[in-house]
Amino acid sequence: MDFPGRLSVTLLLLGYLGWLFYKERRSGIFSATEEGPESATVSVPVTFDSFLHNQQLRKKLLRSFCSRGPKVSRLLRPRYFPRLRVNERHELVYCSVPDVGPANWEQVLKMLNEVPGQVEKIVNESAPLRASLQDLSQYDTTTIGSLLASYTKIIFIRDPFWRLLSTYRRHDAVAGSFEAFVRRLMAQRLKPTATWKPLVQLCHPCLVRYDYIVAHGLLGQEMRHLLHRLGVPEGVELPEFQDSEESLPSWWLTEQRFNQLSAQLVGELLQFYRNDFTAFNFTNALTLTYPMSKEYTSRKQLMSHEEA
Prior knowledge:
It contains twelve helices and five strands. The protein has helices at 3-25, 48-68, 102-114, 141-150, 160-172, 178-187, 199-203, 219-230, 248-259, 263-272, 274-280, 292-307; strands at 84-87, 92-95, 134-135, 152-157, 212-215. Mean pLDDT is 74; it is low at 6-35, 284-300 and 302-308.
C-alpha cells in the first residue's frame, strides 16, 4: 500500500477511535448532580430501580431550583395551564409540549383505552364520559386544585437545543439556514410559541408538583417503567419508541448545525433557556465541539457563580 493509502487508513482508524471515545463519554446513566438526562444512551439499560432512583434525583434537583427562584403564586388560575392535558379515564395530568414526548404518550394512552380488560388497575371506570383529553385550563379553579391533588402528574423533558433543531427540521429546514431560523426566534423571544418556549414557562414545574419527570433520549425505557409503576401489567405490548438522537448521523448533523452559530447567538440561546438548563440539569453533548464548547462552558460557569 502506498503512503497516501496508508495515511487514509490511519485517518479513518483515528476517526473511528474518536467516535468510540465520544460514545463512551455519553454512555453513563443519568445523575442529577453530574449529567443531564439526555447524556445517556439507550445502549445502557435503565432498570426499574434505577428509573425510580433517577426520578427522586430529578425531583430533588427541581425542588432545589424552585426554592432558589422567586416565590411562585399558588393561585391555580386556569390561564396558567393551556399546555396541561387531563385524562380522566386514567386519572392523569401531563404537560404537552411539541417535540418532547406527549405524542408518543398519547399514542400509548389511546392503545390502553382499546384494551381496557388488561389495564383495569389504572382505568377509572366511573369517570364521566367526556373527551379523553382536555386542557386543564377548561376546568374551574376548584376542580383544578382537586385534579392536581389527586391525579398522577407527568412532565416530559428534552434539551432545549434538541427541541430547536427538531422544530427547524419539521418546519423551517427548506425556508432558510439554521442560523437565520435561530436569529428569527431570538428576535421574537418576548412572545415565544409552544414549540420553542422554555419548559419551565410552559409546564410550571414550580407550581405543579409533578410525580414523574420523563426524559427524552430515554423515552422508550422510561415509558415502560412509568406504565409499570402506574399498574399496567408487564405483558401488555407497547409501541416501540426510537429517539432520533440515537443515530450517529443525527448527532453529527446536529453538531454541524450549532457550529454554524456565532458565540453571541449561542450565548443568547443559553440565556433564554437558562432556567430549563438549571431546573433539569441538561448536559448538552454538543459542547464537545468547537466553538460551542468554549462559549457553553463559560456561560455555565457564569450561571453557577451567580447562583452561588
